[in-house]
Amino acid sequence: MPGALAVHMAAARLVAVALSAGLLVVIGGGFSVSGAEELTNTSSSSSAPQLLSTVLTTESKDGSARARRPSVQKELDAARAKIRRAARGKGGSTAPEWFHGGDNVDHALLARVYRNPAAFYRSYVEMERRFKVYVYEEGEPPIAHAGPCKNIYTIEGRFIEQLELMPPPPAAATGVVRTWDPARAHAFFLPFSVVEMVEFAYRRPSKDRTAIRSLVADYVRVVASRHPFWNRSAGADHFMLSCHDWGPWASRGHPELYANGIRALCNANTSEGFQPGKDVSIPEINLYDGDTPRQLLEPAPGLSSRPYLAFFAGGRHGHVRDLLLQHWKGRDPDTFPVYEYDLPSTTTTRNSSTTGTHDGADRQRDYFSYMHRARFCLCPSGHEVASPRVVEAIHAGCVPVLVSDGYAPPFADVLRWEGFSVSVPVADIPRLKEILESIPTAEVERLRNGARLVKQHFTLRQPPERLDMFHMILHSVWLRRLNFRLNR
């Protein structure tokens, strides 16, 4: 297709993605329903956007499509009506124990941690019952249908793996999100791995990353040429997922993917083109061997067993960490320990006692030992905005302190991050200790309770379980899919 004609058709398709009268739209610090009552939002300390939605579909018992089933668009219209009712308190009661695996949860805690518990409940339950994702089969491993399942890029490979391992109907259990019938799909997944593209297409030490963009562009072009779904929406009901720092940059390989597609990214930097109302922020989690470290599975100590106000250990990766280490490294090790690569040992193993050295396992134990003895864990941005320390802190019962500018934290359309974390602008790094010391003990305990409640959302499980990280990422995609209509 000639370039000018392609641009013209893309512009025409973008009109089809405009929000219609019944959809959720961004208004200031929250979301409201166009042409209806405004959704309640009492949060004032978080600038993160909020999306709350649900869906309704009809599925036969054997998983097959039925001609009488409403169209995907009608299903989504019904979903929007239900979410409006739930947001206005007319969607029925919400069982507090649903939020925490059967354990009863205080209503006040739910209100502090979730933007609208009733709306989230309705949205999530309907997603479980109805949401369908079609996974394109194009491409070959390792570039597509594969990815790293351990190290700092764990979530990229695990998400691809877990979605693709879902069995096809009729073997699939009720509620399985993957569909093999694209006509039933509410969203379409592009299963390529930016990490693997970097591994196989990038030539170090060259700074030329053109090949990575070309791979992304080629994949989208192949999908668009073989299927009608990309072209009917200009990619707005499609999503990619990447935890590599270069994920946002790679998405620019195809203009429509960058402008319209749902980009699920660890590097969720609003100053670099991340759009919270369209894109999805996903947690960065560093599973060294593919499993959650044993130390983070142990019960977290209480405040009385935490002598340190705050803790950090890490390298000078980027200007934020450099500034943090410049101001606080070695300044107050008794109450505010901040280390570079010189973290003192807290463990003695056979290897360390005989050789005088500490291996990687020893250093990991030392690191988590400090986390377990600190009230706050500093989570500064590295070369890019995300940090795996956020997830580690939540699991260690240590209140995460996000030190960054432009970071859109994960699941902020549902969660009130101010209910379980502290956010500090980079400019306030010199005042970090003063800021944290000013937080009363009772508030620290409330933040820890909030972190304990949301921990399930920042846990990867195999196989996936309700409300875990895999499903929360899907829920974030689900919300954004609800936020536009195809005018067909």
Report on the structure:
This protein has 488 residues and is α/β, with parallel strands linked by helices. The protein has three domains: 3-130, no CATH class; 133-285 and 465-481, no CATH class; 294-458, Rossmann fold (3-Layer(aba) Sandwich). It is built from 18 helices and 13 strands. It has helices at 3-15, 72-87, 107-113, 117-130, 154-164, 194-201, 210-226, 229-233, 247-251, 255-259, 294-297, 319-328, 350-355, 360-372, 389-396, 432-437, 441-454, 469-481, and strands spanning 24-27, 30-33, 133-135, 178-179, 187-189, 238-242, 262-265, 280-281, 308-313, 338-339, 374-380, 399-403, 422-424. The chain has a six-stranded parallel sheet. Strands 10-9-11-12-13 form a five-stranded parallel sheet. β1 (24-27) and β2 form a beta hairpin. The two termini are 22 Å apart.
